[in-house]
Amino acid sequence: MGAVVKDGAGGGIPVNAFWTASVGEAIGHVETLPLVLSLPVNVASDQRINTSLTLDAKTILKPGDSFATPRSFVAVYHGDFYEPLRTYSLALQKEGWTLAKPNDQDYGHRLVRFGDMSSTSLRHRC
């Protein structure tokens, strides 16, 4: 699960998925606690896509200390992005997560903030 950092950015599902008509590849983490990390995506000059899981641990290890990276995965699959999201959901459920049951309010109008829009005033118009 993605963590929200102090400026309000972040959150979401920590999975990057890429696919063609014949094959897909996904990368992400399956920790059950929110982590501040990134899954950057870059397109190289040869049009190949590069992605990684980056964690700024800001940790200094003393002799005898240990450090564990987040449980992460690389998946190869067939289909579109629904397949790795389903796999991600099943992995979290095996860790004890239960899926929320939707209610009528879940389908109502809601203003969602994407990025830093603090200086922008949005109005809902019918």
Low-confidence region ranges: 119-126
Biggest sheet, strands in spatial order?
1-2-5
Structural class: alpha+beta
Radius of gyration, whole Å: 18 Å
Give the percentage of residues in beta strands. Answer: 15-25%
Mean pLDDT score, rounded? 83
Helix/strand order, N-terminal first: EEEEEH
Largest sheet: 3 strands, antiparallel
What is the strand tally? 5
The helical percent reads 10-25%
**Straight-line N-to-C gap:** 34 Å
Shape: globular
How many helices? The count is 1
What's the arrangement of secondary structure elements?
Blueprint: E1 15-19, E2 24-29, E3 41-43, E4 49-51, E5 72-77, H1 82-94
Antiparallel strand pairs: 1-2, 2-5, 3-4
Describe this structure as you would to a colleague.
The protein has 126 residues and is α+β, with helices and mostly antiparallel strands. The strands form 2 sheets. The chain has a 3-stranded antiparallel β-sheet, with helices on one face. Strands 3-4 form a two-stranded antiparallel sheet. The two termini are 34 Å apart.
